């Protein structure tokens, strides 16, 4: 898993591997979609790391976001 990451607009796609998930905005029916272009710099960075999870955790802070949702919704 240290070399694997998932790029998806749906967080459920990487729910069991949060530290491997790279969230993007939805792109359906959007002729002006440029999400992959926005990720270019990140993709250049990620290919140089030994463990993608470290970079993903620090960049997207998905675990913190999930905790905030749990706290705010009292889940």
Structure overview:
With 75 residues, the protein is mainly α. It has a single domain (6-73), classed as 3-Layer(aba) Sandwich (Rossmann fold). Helix content is 43%, strand content 8%. It has four helices and two strands. It has helices at 35-38, 40-46, 52-60, 62-73; strands spanning 6-8, 21-23. Strands 1-2 form a two-stranded parallel sheet. The longest helix has 12 residues, at 62-73. It is globular. It starts with 5 loop residues before the first strand and ends with a helix.
Q: What is the string of SSEs from the N terminus onward? A: EEHHHH
Helix content range of the residues, please?
40-55%
Number of helices, where a helix is a run of at least 4 consecutive DSSP H or I residues = 4
| Largest sheet, spatial ordering of strands | 1-2
Mean pLDDT: 93
Bulk shape: globular
Give me the secondary-structure category: mainly alpha
Strand content range: 5-15%
List segments where confidence is low: pLDDT < 50 over at least 5 consecutive residues.
Answer: none
CATH class label: Alpha Beta
DSSP strand tally: 2
Number of discrete domains: 1
The second-level CATH architecture is: 3-Layer(aba) Sandwich
Main sheet characteristics: 2 strands, parallel
CATH superfamily: HAD superfamily/HAD-like
What do we call the CATH topology?
A: Rossmann fold
Determine the N-to-C terminus distance.
28 Å
Rg is 13 Å
């Amino acid at each position: 898993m240290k070399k694997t990451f998932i790029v998806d607009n749906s967080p459920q796609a990487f729910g069991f591997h949060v530290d491997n998930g790279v969230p993007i905005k939805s792109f359906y029916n959007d002729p002006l979609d440029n999400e992959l272009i926005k990720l270019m710099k990140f993709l250049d960075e990620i290919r140089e790391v030994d463990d993608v999870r470290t970079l993903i955790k620090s960049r997207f802070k998905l675990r913190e976001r999930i905790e905030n949702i749990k706290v705010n919704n009292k889940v």
